[in-house]
Write a structure and sequence with these properties.
Structural class: alpha+beta
Distance between the termini: 27 Å
Number of strands: 7
Oligomer: single chain
Radius of gyration: 14 Å
Number of helices: 4
Largest sheet: 7 strands, mixed
Order of helices and strands: HHEEHHEEEEE
Strand content: 35-45%
Length: 145
């Protein structure tokens, strides 16, 4: 997946959401810079707090669709805030779907601070709710990281 260099951070982020809904994890990973960093500041013990490089991010995300079946990122809950740094946006959003293992509803709110360069993600700090990791069927990342 190639991301054009002229794409804005907001456009890139919206594209990434479309790829997640399509369960196109290789396409989503293709939006990342080779040395991109994904961080989870509120990660609970046993869960990864930092992923360095596109390959580590790919390894983390590969099983995602097998565990969480995303149906929507409702537009009413999606806010992309531009910042004083033109390469960085702050995103508020909500993802809804179901947990594959249990069939239970999935409904998560997120705040992310995302930086891009040359049309690719370089930094993504995901402030997700760590209590959601207690839900059966959500431990797709394993506990070894």
């Amino acid at each position: 997946m190639s991301a054009p260099e002229s794409v804005s951070p907001a456009e890139l982020y919206r594209r990434s959401l479309s790829l997640l809904l399509a369960k196109d994890i290789p396409g989503w990973v293709g939006l990342w810079a080779e040395e991109g960093v994904m961080e989870f500041p509120f990660a609970p013990p046993g869960r990864p707090a930092r992923l360095e490089g596109r390959e580590a991010i790919a390894d983390y995300m590969r099983p995602y669709p097998d565990h969480i079946d995303l149906h929507d990122f409702p537009e009413a809950d999606l806010r992309i805030h531009e910042t004083a740094e033109p390469r960085t946006v702050v995103v508020e959003m909500r993802g809804v779907g179901r947990l594959v293992q249990t069939g239970r509803p999935f409904d998560m709110r997120y705040v992310a601070v995302v930086t891009t360069e040359n049309g690719r993600f370089t930094s993504y700090r995901d402030y997700w709710n760590p209590l959601a990791a207690l839900e059966p069927g959500t431990d797709f990342a394993g506990s070894s990281r």
